[in-house]
Amino acid sequence: MTHEVFGEYGEYFDLLYGDKDYDREADYVNEILVRLGVTSGSILEFGSGTGRHGRILANAGFDVLGVDLSAAMVRLANSGRAVKGFSCQQGDIRTVRVDRQFDAVTALFHVLSYQVTNSDLLSVFHNARAHLVSGGVFVFDFWYGPAVFTLKPTVREKKIAGDELSVTRVSKPIWDVQRNVVDVHFDVRVMDKKSRNVREFTEVHPMRYFSLPELDLFAECTGFRREIAEEFLTRAAPSEQTWGVCVALRAQ
Description:
- The chain is an alpha/beta fold.
- The protein folds into two domains: 2-144 and 208-251, Rossmann fold (3-Layer(aba) Sandwich), CATH 3.40.50; 148-207, CAC2371-like domains (S-adenosyl-L-methionine-dependent methyltransferases), CATH 2.20.130.10.
- Helices cover 27% and strands 38% of the residues.
- It has helices spanning 8-11, 13-16, 22-35, 52-59, 71-79, 118-130, 145-151, 212-221; strands at residues 2-3, 42-46, 63-68, 86-90, 102-107, 132-144, 156-161, 165-176, 181-192, 198-210, 224-231, 244-251.
- Strands 1, 2, 3, 4, 5, 6, 7, 8, 9, 10, 11 and 12 form a twelve-stranded mixed β-sheet that branches.
- A hairpin with a 5-residue loop joins strand 9 (181-192) and strand 10.
- The N and C termini lie far apart (46 Å).
C-alpha cells in the first residue's frame, strides 16, 4: 500500500535515523544563530519531526515550539522525554498561525525541499516572515540543484535492527526534470523479531531541489535578505558536490 508522507513511515523514523548526529546538527544551527546575533530567545521549528533537534536547542536555552504536519511524528515528539522549553503541535507550515513572534524560524532535514510547488514555497516563506520579529533569522537546509545534476539520485538500501524490530528500506528515485523534483519511493519492510510478523508499505516523498538565485528571489519577495549560504555542517562554499546546503535569511 502507498501511504501519505510520514504516515506509517513516521512510526519508524527514529529507528531509521538512529545514526543521524542530531547533537552536531543542532550545535551547528545554534552556531549559525550566534553568528547572526541570536544568542537566546525563541525558535519556531517548521517540520519538527519527533523533536530531536528541538529538544537539543531547548537544552541550549531556547524556547522552542515545533510544528509538524504528521500526526504520528507529533505524537512521538510529545511522548518522548520532556524537556523544559520544548513543545510540539500539529500543523501545516504553509498556513499555521501562532499568536506570537519568534527570534528565529528553522526548517531542518530538507523540510524546504518538500515544498514542491512555487505556491507552497511562497506560503512557507511568507509564514516564516509573519512569525519573525524584525531582524529575526530563518534557517533551513535543502537539496542543492547543481549537486543533484552532478551526483544524481540513486537507488539505496538501508537495514536497521532494533531491540524489537528490523527494518529494511529501499529508496527508489524517479526524477522529474521538468518539475525540479525527485519522487523518492520508500519501500519499507518491517519485521517483528519476536513474532516474525511482517508489514510492508510504500511512501512517496517528493523532493524539490533549488538554486541559490531561485531562493533569493523568493526571499526578496517575502521580506528577507540572504546572510549565509554554505554546505550544511562543514561551512564550505556550495558546489556541484554539495547535496545539502544551508541558508540563513534575515527578516527585513
